[in-house]
Specification:
- The chain is an alpha/beta fold.
- It has one domain: Rossmann fold, CATH 3.40.50.
- Helices cover about 35% and strands about 20% of the residues.
- The protein contains eight helices and eight strands.
- The strands form two sheets. The protein has a six-stranded parallel sheet with strand order 3-2-1-4-5-8, sandwiched between helices.
- Strand 6 and strand 7 form a beta hairpin.
- It starts with a strand and ends in a 5-residue tail after the last helix.
- Pfam families: Isochorismatase (PF00857).
- Keywords: Hydrolase.
Length: about 210
Amino acid sequence: MNRALIVIDVQNEYFTGSLPIAHPPREESLAAILRAMDAAGRNGVPVVVVRHTAPESSPLFARGSHGWELRGEVAGRRYRHLVDKAKASAFHETGLRDLLAGLGVDTLAVAGYMTQNCDESTARDAFHLGFAVEFLSDATGTVPLANAAGSRTAEEVHESVLVVMQSNFAAVTTTDRWIEAVEARLPIPRPSIWESTAVARDTPAT
């Protein structure tokens, strides 16, 4: 097992810009992200920071804008690589797969924003590329959503993604538990679609 920590889009847009993270509270999730980065550094786990970059005319994450810049606490910490992306997944046309392969990484821990968008997309791609994935439940976060399909609070969005991730794609864990596993050099139990579908299988068809 050779871990890396990927810190996705911890940028000012999610704190002082147009998309303030609502759940978990952004200052709490930021504190968890920083704890994970510090623990990774102490234990030789490479940290890859990802930054979402949009054209200068974009209303969000416009290149060169204050919202596009990394949060200072993240920018000021040590990390191995900075990856710029233009789509939700950190693997899309970024060279991240080759970068991780060069580091010998087989297990990728996901932290950052937003839970259901860039975090989930990256985690799913990592799973399909053969990585074991760890998803830090309190070091990720999101905003409320409302559109033609309906509406959900930030908490509902976040918790739903965690359940889906744990069902098949990633081992969902708290930051503190992840740090314990990193320090002990132990894996976190993998998800099981069989276990997660037990309730459905036990419900008689009507």
